[in-house]
Amino acid sequence: MYLDPQSRLGIGSLFTMVLSFFGRERDHVTHSPTLPPSYPLAVRNPYLSTWMPSDQVQTLPFAEPQFWAGQSLTWSVMARVDGQTYSLMSVKAPGDNIRPAIVRSAEYTATHSVFTLSAGSVRLTLDFFSPISPSNYLRQSLPFSYLTVSVSEASANNIQIYSSIDGRWAGRPQNTARSFHQTESTAIYTLAVKNAVPYSEESDMATWGETIFAARPSPGSNVTFGSGKRGEVRAQFVQTGILAGNEPWVPGGIVALSHDLGTVVGRQSVNFAVGYVREKAINYLGKPYTGYYRAAFPETSQALDYFLDDYPDALRESLILDLEMATRAKVAAGQKYADIVTLSARQAYGGIDLTIPNDSLDTDEVLGFIKELSSNGNLNTVDVIMPAFPIYYIMDPTYIRLLLEPMMRYLVAGRWRKPYLIHDMGAHYPNAIGHDNQKAEPMPIEECGNLMVLALAYVRATGDVPWVEKYIDVIRPYADYLVENSIDIAKQLSSNDAAGALANETNLAIKAAVGLKAFGELAGLEDYSRIGEERADLFYTQGRGTDGDKTHFVLQYPDKPASWKIPYNLYPDVLFDLQTFPKEAYQMGDTFFPGVRAEYGVALDNRQDWAKSDWNMWLAGTFEDPRTRDEFVDDLWAFMSNGKHNWPFSDRYVATSAKGRTPGVPVLCRARPTVGGHFALMALQGAGSLQKGVLSRMMLEEMSHGEEL
């Protein structure tokens, strides 16, 4: 007889015994290619972002995954092997009749997180797969992720596979309604908040959409379903291996799906799909925008059927992407760099929604929206797009335009009247309503310079001159602002607003100079290019922005020779070969920064004990000495893999103990798409380089497959 664990005595001693057992097995768990802070499980957009902290992998059968912001979620997986049930993941209080499987290994690639476990004599893998397919707008916009459970080394074993989620996925578990729908081939559960308010959040979780959990039979399997009280639904599976349907819904209940594989010899796999659907995904200037995929599949069930049908093609593409990204990253800066960027990839795209108008579903009207995760939730923040752009530059440069376009249309409408560029397109996601009150966070030189660089990046990569011509009259006044305001710089914020406002910040002066040269290139106006070069001459050659011996750029000018800040704004000058600054300006860093390197690398500036990982990789892209570049890579890798933290990859962390804090731990930021900046070294391989490499490998594979046929 199955006993509800909440009603049993001795659960504490049982848990202690199990943890002791796992402790004895610890040496058998391997992490490949290294230990990350957290494993991405289902990471597709700001509201489908589920992670497994790495410090819980050892006890994965009991461990609960988390939403990116830290809220725990149930995503249980169990396997029943010859009548004995094993917990594989997230069975928090399993009871006497469920044994914990043994975790053997954990691995991540750019698109997959894979855990291998032993359940009796059977080996099982949990493959959490979130596609990255930016050029395929349909595939990329689908708000679902795969869980594939594979059985291997089976020898005529009778096997059933179970998975369930709970109401916490919907954001307000005590006010959640359940529904069930079955198409000809797919069983679909929906969890949604009752009487939801459109575009509302609860601790960064969306509360106006629908959580989706679905499965369909695989060859050789039958799917059953059940929902209701957690203990009762689990008991059905433990006792019989099948689920008996839907019972009354209660707060704290679960929805569950089970694959009955029957007798398995060798290997067999089954899929589950999890997702979060918002029909009205974004409020853009008062008009609802929806996911791009809805042009092809207006109904969620249609989209799910397509998503499950698409698995073989999506998997094939992902394996090629994983290989190509890792290979190119190793060429750029070695294995540790490959470890960094492959962990960053899903996170960089996981902050984006790809949308079209909800009324017309016009696929010619695609707009991209990106959330400033874990800070203030701003929408399409220019200085979030800026650090992230290297990954878009190499995977599909059109994303730079898609993310800028909502702002450009707003500017054309004349609703932003300040002389400098707007900071973002909305105070909080998903409301892209601009700032008609003119009260967006002011970062005048920062955002004006960013626009010049981003526009040039897009046009250089795509050759889309008509886009520039369309908006050149909007962009030019911001270039003029840089001309007029970037020598004696008024006190203002830069992208690193946590560091506070400064007057005469050298790194902003560098940004303005490079931005002016970029605009000159963009518009074909030599006067702006000349002024950019003159500003570079002023701040480097004439020494206004350096110490007296020209060993480094100072944080502030004049009269602050001992101060310093990482001059990451030099990176676009190198990337686009603008030659705004002479090579000697970059060479200073080769020798200066090893001298201020701390336990986990170089801090943002001499005032701080924290570093920014994206900007450090930008700066690494400016070094001529590969030894200095490799030091920056080594330091970021050391932070990422040190086992001291379990957040989704933080782009801000304590680099030095000099100010009394523990080094190697994150500060405030988690899961931010700005980790796209980690791809800065790969971006030096050329615009669209990764995209072209993936396409080339796919074509070669197709040709090879055709020859085999």
TrEMBL record:
Question: What are the residue boundaries of the Glutaminase A N-terminal domain, all occurrences included?
Answer: 111-326
Give the stretches traversing the membrane: none
Q: Which domain of life is it from?
A: Eukaryota
Which Pfam families does the UniProt entry name for this protein? DUF5127, GtaA_6_Hairpin
Looking at the record, the residues that make up the Glutaminase A central domain are 334-681
**InterPro entries per the UniProt record, alphabetical:** Glutaminase_GtaA (IPR052743), GtaA_central (IPR032514), GtaA_N (IPR033433)
* UniProt-listed PANTHER family: GLUTAMINASE A-RELATED (PTHR31987), PUTATIVE (AFU_ORTHOLOGUE AFUA_6G09910)-RELATED (PTHR31987:SF14)
* Protein's name according to its UniProt entry: Glutaminase
